[in-house]
Design goal:
By secondary structure, the chain is an alpha/beta fold. It contains 12 helices and 12 strands. α5 links the parallel β3 and β4. α4 crosses α5 and α10 runs parallel beside α12. The relative contact order is 0.16. Bound molecules: pyridoxal-5'-phosphate (PLP). The site of pyridoxal-5'-phosphate has 13 residues, from α4.
């Protein structure tokens, strides 16, 4: 699969000494599939996009109107590095309304997507060489970002048979072999969609507190829960870092805007880092994001589209021959076993795109060791896209790819 630079990853550069070793992280394959899919579209071919976790719908109307108003009437300036006070206050209020959590606006930091939240929190909480536990399969950027910052990602392998969740006992066992300084968990998770049951989530946090492991809770898929109720780590720990974003439920990926709720000891370190790393998140996105909290009705209608897409895929994928998928409690992904078709997920995803016109992400992106037979389908697109993808896969006989 061609990447956007035309270079092959891992290729030796004649000028090797000019490129850092820390940049030799694995590619984020979902983004590489997107580049290949876009190239096909540019040739006039149809692509059914199921590769990137990106809502097919645009940002809510009130968000777009606030941005237009700001372009016409505001000076688009820097903001304080931790964000506009009114947005920080609105997010703090959201925690009271949604989770009954008492959060002071001072603890809220606005970031350029949750992606910047990871960089800032890793830098503020850990030193070079520190070990951070992650579930495998898990979101690939965690591993790549940790490595680029000189930290050590420690994979904790999870399986479909156990709902793809990390347990407190597993964390304690890994820690007893060699100490962990951090644990990063997303619930609901990417790629499995699994949400930890409340008791298991609380056990995990308690275990981290007892063992002095910093718990980082990626809550980006809160709001997109189909079964059960999402818990915030804020209600169970004073030391946890909570990371969230406007990208998913709020349909604002390209606005690059997210937030963190910080424990007291990380507040000023993160402010200092943000001041120098990117000064502030974009003013325009901050002003617009504040309105996203009033768009619940519009956003819940979009969530209903995901719910229908999820049902359709859970019915159709086993008929096509995919196996062992966890029925996605939340988020908008199905992580399916394709062992009947392949033991080379990357090759299979290439063929699925080239032959069937369906763009999906190979499991090796999420689990380099055990992801060779798995594929992740995102169902964040329109119902038409999902219907067409199901029809195309049914008629193409994936086993002949
Ligand atoms: C689990 C998880 N966390 C974080 C992100 C990053 O999102 P953003 O930087 O747009 O907030 C993603 C994106 O797919 C994700 O799946």
């Amino acid at each position: 699969m061609k990447n956007s630079t035309g270079q092959t990853d891992g290729q030796t550069d004649t000028n090797k000494k000019m490129v850092s070793l820390r940049s030799a992280v694995a590619p984020f394959l979902a983004m590489d599939v997107l580049v290949a899919a876009n190239a096909r579209e540019a040739e006039g071919k149809t692509v059914l996009h199921m590769e990137v976790g990106e809502p097919g719908h645009q940002a809510p109307l009130a968000v777009r109107e606030a941005a237009k108003e700001a372009i016409d009437n505001a000076r688009i300036s820097y903001t304080p590095s931790l964000g506009l006070p009114s947005l920080r206050a609105r997010i703090a209020r959201h925690y009271g309304e949604t989770y009954g959590a008492d959060v002071s606006p001072d603890r809220v930091a606005i970031t350029t997507g949750s992606s910047a939240g990871f960089i800032l929190s890793f830098l503020a909480a850990f030193d070079v060489g520190d070990r951070v536990g992650l579930s495998a399969p898990g979101y690939p950027a965690y591993r790549n970002t940790l490595k680029a910052l000189g930290l050590v990602p420690v994979d904790i392998s999870v399986k479909a048979a156990n709902r793809y969740v990390v347990t407190a006992d597993e964390v304690a066992a890994v820690h007893s072999e060699e100490k962990l300084q951090g644990l990063l968990i997303a619930s609901p998770a990417n790629p499995s969609g699994t949400m930890l049951k409340p008791d298991a989530f609380i056990d995990l946090i308690k275990c981290c507190e007892e063992l002095d492991i910093r718990f980082i809770s990626d809550e980006i898929y809160h709001g997109l829960v189909f079964d059960g109720q999402a818990e915030t780590a804020l209600n169970h720990s004073k030391n946890a870092v909570v990371i969230n974003s406007f990208s998913k439920y709020y349909c604002m990926t390209g606005w690059r805007i997210g937030w963190m709720v910080l424990p007291q000891d990380l507040n000023r370190p993160i402010e200092r880092l943000a001041q120098s790393l990117y000064i502030s998140a974009p003013y325009l996105s901050q002003v617009a994001a504040e309105k996203a909290f009033d768009a619940t009705q519009e956003l819940d209608q979009i969530k209903q589209v995901y719910a229908r897409n999820r049902e359709k895929l859970l019915r159709a994928l086993p008929e096509i021959g995919f196996e062992d998928m966890h029925p996605a409690d939340g988020a908008f992904y199905i992580y399916a076993d394709a062992r009947r078709f392949t033991n080379d997920a990357l090759d299979f995803s290439k063929k699925l795109l080239e032959t069937v016109g369906v763009a999906a992400t190979p499991g090796v992106d999420f689990d380099p060791i055990n992801g060779q037979t798995t594929i992740r389908f995102s169902f964040a697109g329109s119902e038409e896209t999902i219907d067409a993808a199901i029809a195309a896969m049914k008629s193409s006989k994936c086993c002949q790819l």
